From TrEMBL:
Primary location: other
One GO location term (cellular component): bacterial-type flagellum basal body, rod
Record keywords, A-Z: Bacterial flagellum, Cell projection, Cilium, Flagellum
Cell compartment(s), UniProt: Bacterial flagellum basal body
Domain Flagellar basal-body/hook protein C-terminal per the UniProt entry, residue ranges: 200-244
Gene name per UniProt: flgF
An example Gene Ontology biological process: bacterial-type flagellum-dependent swarming motility
Keyword Zinc: no
Upper classification of the organism: Bacteria, Pseudomonadati, Pseudomonadota, Betaproteobacteria, Burkholderiales
Name used for this protein in its record: Flagellar basal-body rod protein FlgF
Quaternary context: The basal body constitutes a major portion of the flagellar organelle and consists of five rings (E,L,P,S, and M) mounted on a central rod. The rod consists of about 26 subunits of FlgG in the distal portion, and FlgB, FlgC and FlgF are thought to build up the proximal portion of the rod with about 6 subunits each.
Length: 248
């Protein structure tokens, strides 16, 4: 009887955790550059006791991500960039580290620094990218950032720097709680990759499929309900067994 409870209890817990991930994906279906979260689970025998190997429960592994590309939306905005194919845009995190994102709707802050809409400084090959005040910014396909002041001739365009575009193996990346990706612990920051290019005047959308996420939410809800029914059945069977033992 307790084996039935172990299976039902761990199954219900897994369904709840999976539902939370699917709900998060659904909530970010329209978030630029979002990568859908994928949870993996495995069965593990309960430790201790001679009969423990016959009892198992579900544990979650490190959440992964769906690295498929999202759709591109043309915006015509000069500071919007979308990674073409595989690759990532490097940004500086508040703790001084480096993280990677596919979100390319950029802006110039009050200090003239090129940042994401989340106010994270965009990393350049040689450090931060700072634009002269009042300049018109343009970003080339290879990530080169140029600025031209009001009234300056075309030959007076100044090179601000180059976006740090990287393409590390996805197996070396982990998602943080802030939605940004970082290199696994112990690995050095990714090196710039000249093969990574960007499309200017466009942003990449979320790779979450709204229909698939909705179907997954329904399936998880039904799975949770089934596990709860199994727990109630185990309780009813235990009560019936106790009555038989009491009056047998």
């Amino acid at each position: 009887m307790d084996r039935m409870l172990y299976v039902a209890m761990s199954g219900a817990k897994q369904a709840m955790e999976q539902q939370a991930s699917v709900a998060n994906n659904m909530a970010n279906a329209s978030t630029p550059g979002f990568r859908a979260q994928i949870n993996s689970f495995r069965a593990v025998p309960v430790a201790g006791g001679a009969e423990a190997p016959t009892r198992a429960y579900v544990v979650a592994t490190t959440p992964g991500a769906d690295f498929s590309h999202g759709p591109l939306t043309e915006t015509g905005r000069a500071l919007d960039v979308a990674i073409h194919g595989d690759g990532w845009l490097a940004v500086q995190t508040p703790d001084g580290g480096e993280a990677y994102t596919r979100v390319g709707n950029l802006q110039v802050n009050a200090e003239g620094q090129l940042t994401t809409m989340g106010s994270l400084p965009v990393a350049g090959d040689a450090g931060a990218l700072v634009v002269p005040p009042g300049s018109t910014v343009a970003i080339a396909a290879n990530g080169l950032v140029t600025a031209r002041g009001a009234g300056d001739p075309a030959i007076g365009i100044a090179e601000v720097g180059r976006l740090k575009l990287v393409n590390p193996p996805v197996a070396d990346l982990v998602r943080g709680a802030d939605g940004l990706f970082r290199m696994r612990e112990g690995l050095a920051p990714a090196e710039p990759d000249a093969a990574v290019t960007v499309t200017t005047g466009a942003v990449e959308g979320s790779n979450v499929n709204g229909v698939e996420a909705m179907v997954a939410m329904i399936a998880n809800a039904r799975s949770f309900e089934m596990q709860m029914k199994s727990m109630r059945s185990a309780d009813e069977n235990a009560q019936s067994a106790n009555k038989l033992l009491a009056y047998g």
